[in-house]
Amino acid sequence: MVISADVVEASAAAGTATTPSAAAVIAATVARLGAQHVFALMGGTNMRVVHHLAGEGLVVHHFRHENGAVGAADGYARVTGEVAWSSVIHGPGLTNAITALRTAVKARSPQVLIMADTAGLPPRNSPFDTGIQGLSPEAILSQIGVPVVRASAASAAYDTVRAHQAALHSLSPVALVIPFGVEAEPSGGDPETAIAELVRERPAVVPSAEAIDAASRRSGPAGGSSSWPGAGRAIRRRRGSWSGSPSSAVRTWPPPCAGSAPSQAHRRIWASSAASPTTQERRSSTRPTA
Fold first, then answer.
1. The pLDDT of residue 245 is above 80
2. Do 276 and 175 share a domain, yes or no?
3. What are the beta bridge partners of residue 62?
4. Of 201 and 19, the one with more pLDDT
5. What is the model's pLDDT at position 288?
6. Quick one: 172 and 282 in the same domain?
């Protein structure tokens, strides 16, 4: 495990061996899991983790709003197919990110959101952080379908890997919640051991034309689905032209009544779509022959 230079220097100056903090162990684990970028809005409750992530070589993309940070991580996950990493502070930092998190849930976009939680702080010492900003992550995130993994100093490496694996295999955002103060506690966790014990490969998914034809509900590129008569013929007619002729797919996708029972008007649209030639077919019919 590689610990940030500031920890080593502080250790040498003190003349004693220093156990890495939970923040350092979490950052080292994130790096060992292959992360290269983190999208963050840094504040008082997540700055130690973000600092150590930068020390591990990750590129930290700083944002002015939490929704932008989580949304950028969502986009990164969609484009690369990898688990994205983001970080925001507690309380209002989380509530500012709710829209982007819900969007990632609906898109089945894997992401680990590293955030703090101040709800457990003594009210007398931190009346603002515990009162107005002391919002329970579980209470909020359970409403939008985001699982929570709570980190402790003793199991920081394992908790980080668990969050990563949950996001990878469920194709969903997962919140790695660090109770404020835990990130500064000493942790003897070993990222390599945690990864060796917990990491599982995601099975490859190979779609087939037979599976599409056999499905009772067929999904389109924009997430729409259909189960009424005539939709299957339209889908099969256009399946071969989606890659070569995006314009024809845009014209018919998503279905105007995706996820609900179609009206008679929608049925007529699909019927005419199934009977009309695709853009690719029209181009073929008008192309001059040699």
1. no
2. no
3. 40
4. 19
5. 60
6. no
Domain that holds residue 230: 209-286
pLDDT class of 91 with cuts at 50, 70, 90: confident
Domain count of the fold of the chain: 2
| HEC secondary structure over the chain | CCCCHHHHHHHHHHCCCCCCEHHHHHHHHHHHCCCCEEEECCCCCCHHHHHHHHHCCCEEEECCCHHHHHHHHHHHHHHHCCCEEEECCCCHHHHHCHHHHHHHHHHCCCEEEEEEECCCCCCCCCHHHHCCCCCCHHHHHCCCCCCEEECCCCCHHHHHHHHHHHHHHHCCEEEEEEECCHHHCECCCCHHHHHHHHCCCCCCCCCCHHHHHHCCCEECCCCCEECCCCHHHHHHHHHCCCCCCHHHHHHHCCCCCCCCCCCHHHHHHHHHHHHCCCHHHHHHHHCCCC
Q: Determine the average pLDDT of the residues in 267-280.
A: 55
> 72 and 177: one domain?
yes
Q: What is the pLDDT of residue 70?
A: 97
For β-strands 173-179 and 148-150, DSSP reports them as parallel
Q: What is the mean pLDDT of the chain?
A: 77
Q: Say if residue 194 is in the same domain as residue 230.
A: no
**Domain identity same for 174 and 216:** no
Strands 37-40 and 59-62, by their bridges, are parallel
0.70 exceeded by the pTM? no
181 with 274, same domain: the answer is: no
Report residue 129's pLDDT band, with 50, 70 and 90 as the boundaries: low
The per-residue pLDDT for 198 is: 93
